[in-house]
Amino acid sequence: MSAGLRETLSPLLFVIYLEAALRDLRTFYNDSITEIVYADDVDFASDNIDDLIHLLNNSPRVLNKWFLIINTSKTELTEIKQMDTRIGETWRTANKLGSLLGDSEDISRRKMLATAALSRIRKKWLQAWPINRALRSRLYNAFVKPVLLYNSSTWGISDTELKTIDSFHRKELRLLHGIHWPSKINNLSLYKHYDATPLSQEIIGGRWKLFGHILRMDPRAPANREMDDYFSEHGDKYRGRPRSTLPAVKKIT
Fold it and tell me: What's the pTM value of the predicted model, to 2 decimals?
């Protein structure tokens, strides 16, 4: 469940003020609900939908005491449940903190946003002034690549999907530097000539950083507990063909 709150204070004061309001709200739930707070957005995660509904019904009254109003247009209840096929998994297109919950869906959206970002750079910069190769690469690394790799360390993707991302990256590099038929350049020369690397390496490196960050967290933290369950030898076996995202053993209803 996500709740969007309208802030009227400075960023730092608002975060402190929101934390004080959430302390009153915590009296309506226990460890069965996990909070995820980012700026003015609050997500509540639980495997018990009744607890979330109870919290949703009591939130307006509690937050009104702190003169906070829930933005109903941004408040939604999302049920994450793995089905036999992806068709019925509507939660995959739910947007949380700028990312879609479904990894494949999020990757497709990231590619679209990166393409749009590169198009704006070409119109406003590359076609307006003569820009050298080094500055083109800096613009790409500053305004396009972060859009494409946003939250990529959490993606659960296969080797095939990593290859498609590398292919997309190379296509963007060729477009950025004006390489088109009849001009040709192989992939290795493209990376070397324009001081670039395959994005799959950065994604895998980000995974290891996230893995280490989770291991350094409190063992009672939800992320640490989920990782222990995921790699446990005594866990339930997966049903059917394994997927690269949420395993059946960790489905949330």
Answer: 0.75
